Amino acid sequence: MINRVFKPILELLPENNRWERIWKLAQVDFQKRYYGNRLGLFWALLNPLFQLGVYYIVFTNVFSVSIPYFALYMFIGLLFWMFFSEATTKSIQTLINYRYLIENIQFNKIDLFLSSTLSSFMGFAFNLAVFFVIALSLGPPVTLNFLYFPLFVVNIFLLALAFGLLLSTLNIYLKDIHHVWDMVTLLGIWLAPVFYSEDLFEKKLGFLMYANPFAGIIINVRKTVLYGQAPDFLLCFYNFAFAILLLVLCNLLFRRFSHKAIEKL
Predict the structure, then answer these.
(1) pTM of the entire predicted model
(2) Which pLDDT tens digit goes with each residue over 16-51?
(3) Taking Cα atoms as reference points, which of 243, 181, 229, 225 lies closest to residue 79?
(4) For the chain, which end, N or C, has fewer CB atoms within 10 Å of the first or last residue's CB respectively?
C-alpha cells in the first residue's frame, strides 16, 4: 500500500539517487516489521486504537473528562507521540542494526537515520489517514487552517530525527541509554497535553510549554485539525526553531563522534 502511494514519486528520481536509497532502506525496514503477520500493516493501527480505547474508558468514566471530540483529541495526540517515541527508540540501535553496511560501504551515515525515521513515518502516515477518515465522519469543522497541518508533521519528523541522532551518539558510549529513554518517554507523554485539556496543562504545567516542544506541536495540531482555529504562530515558530537548531547541533555531534561507532559497538 505504502509503496503504491510513493511509486510515482520514486519513478521521477534518477537511478542510484541518494533519496531512492534512503527510501529503499526505509521500505525494507518497514516491510520486515509487518511481513508475514496475518494482519500486516493493520498492526500499526491496532496498538494506538487499543491504547485509545483504554484511556478513553478511564478518562471518561473515572475522571469524567469533558473535552469536545475527546476520542479524536486523544487519538491525534497518541499518534504523534507514538511516532516520536517509536522513531527515537529505533534510532538508538540504528548503528548496530546497520553495522554491516557501515563496515562495507562508504556512504553518509545520516542516511541510515533518515531511512529509520521514514520507516516509522510510514506507519504514522497510514494511521493519520485512518484518523482523518474517522474525523470527517464525526464532524469537526474543516477550515482553511487545516492547511497548516503538514507543517506540524514536518516539525515532529525533524524533532524525532534530531533526538534519534543524539540518542544513537550517546549509545556509542552509554549502553544503558535505551533504559533511560524508556523512562523519559513514559514521563514525557504525561508532561504534554495528550490526555488532559490544554487549559489544565497551561494552568498546572505551563512552564513546560517551551521546555517540552512536543506540547506546542500537539496543541497547534488540535487547533487546526479539530477546532478549525489558526495555530499559535509564536509557538509554531519556536517549535520549528527548536527542532532545526537541535537537529543541526545533534548532526554536528554525531559527525564528531560517529567515527568511533565501529570500535565501540
Answers:
(1) 0.87
(2) 577 777 888 888 887 777 665 555 667 777 888 888
(3) 225
(4) N
